[in-house]
Amino acid sequence: GALVQAVPWLLEVLRWGGALYLLWFAVSSLRAALRPQGLVAEQAPRTAGSVIATTLALTWLNPHVYLDTVVLLGSLANQHGPDARWVFAAGAVAASALWFTALGYGARLLARVLADPTAWRVVDVVIAVVMAVLAVRLIAGSGVWG
Asked: Which of 12, 74, 83, 101 has the fewest beta carbons closer than 10 A?
């Protein structure tokens, strides 16, 4: 907030940069839909050390870990006062554990469906439409089209 207040034009730069990124993502998804591939399971098995290293890297080197847990959840938890913020934090931890467990089992259940290139064509087209709509709304919100 302080940065945007000090440099008001920065918000417009970020808005247009975000819109361009979303449009690029939409075009990339449409291109992927033209040459879909299913999940490829023909990779060599990975070692336990490689899996652990990848997991640690994705966990601790991911900036969203810090933005989501420290900044976002910390700010929201503090709004509940000194006693209730711990209840909020416990709920957030429980929801996270439930989400990632469901995500893992859901991926396992959907593996056969997602092995079909047609399913990926549908996913890529849906992603392209969503990204394009978001980009247009972001641009429209800038006052250029609205």
From this structure: 83
